[in-house]
Amino acid sequence: MFLLYIKRMDKKTILRKNAKDIRKTLDRVNISAKIRENLKKHPFYENSKNIMIFYPTKYEVNLLELMSFSDKKFFLPRVKGMELEVCEFSEESELKKSEFNILEPITNPVQPSLLDLVIVPALMVDKKGYRLGYGGGFYDRFLSENKGQFKTIAVIPQKLYVEELPIDEYDEKIDYVVTD
């Protein structure tokens, strides 16, 4: 059992590196624009008022433009210890770099139950709805602790939407995937 776990972890490490290498070759601006347009048409997005997005790193899908001319309320995650907190976010929000070099809001956290939709980052996503994240388990823990409270969507370039990923018992399934 332990050896099988190690092999899955090695495979995930290799997949993470490959995904990061592929992302560096992609046209992030164009892909992000297409994903935002596809996301806006999705019923989960259309029917949501309170949406948690993520602040993008250099090669991630950029969803920040969704906030322009929108009547929706947006939130960002903030890491506290090993958990994610949910913080309200607007274009005027003050942000601070986290220990992971990601910009996070400094506002007080709100209850996750306030959310209608959580849009999660991923390095890869498979056709069953499992995502390959960065390996910290923050989103998997957050989704597990708040199961059933909101819908989830992973946004990913089509090139990183794969047939199958190795999964572990703690990996949480995403409700839907939006690509370019």
Report what the structure shows:
Strands 6-3-2-1-7-10-12 form a 7-stranded mixed sheet. A 3-stranded mixed sheet has the order 9-8-11. Strands 4-5 form a two-stranded antiparallel sheet. It has one domain: 3-Layer(aba) Sandwich (Rossmann fold), CATH 3.40.50. It is built from 4 helices and 12 strands, in the order αααβββββββββαβββ. With 180 residues, the chain is of the alpha/beta class. The N terminus is likely disordered. The protein starts with a helix and ends with a strand. It is globular.
Question: What's the layout of helices and strands?
Answer:
Layout: H1 2-25, H2 28-40, H3 43-46, E1 50-52, E2 73-80, E3 83-89, E4 95-97, E5 103-105, E6 109-110, E7 117-120, E8 124-126, E9 131-132, H4 138-145, E10 151-155, E11 161-162, E12 176-178
Parallel strand pairs: 1-2, 1-7, 7-10, 8-11, 10-12
Antiparallel strand pairs: 2-3, 3-6, 4-5, 8-9
Q: Could you give a quick summary of the protein structure above?
A:
The protein has 180 residues and is an alpha/beta fold. It has helices at 2-25, 28-40, 43-46, 138-145; strands at residues 50-52, 73-80, 83-89, 95-97, 103-105, 109-110, 117-120, 124-126, 131-132, 151-155, 161-162, 176-178. Helix content is 27%, strand content 25%.
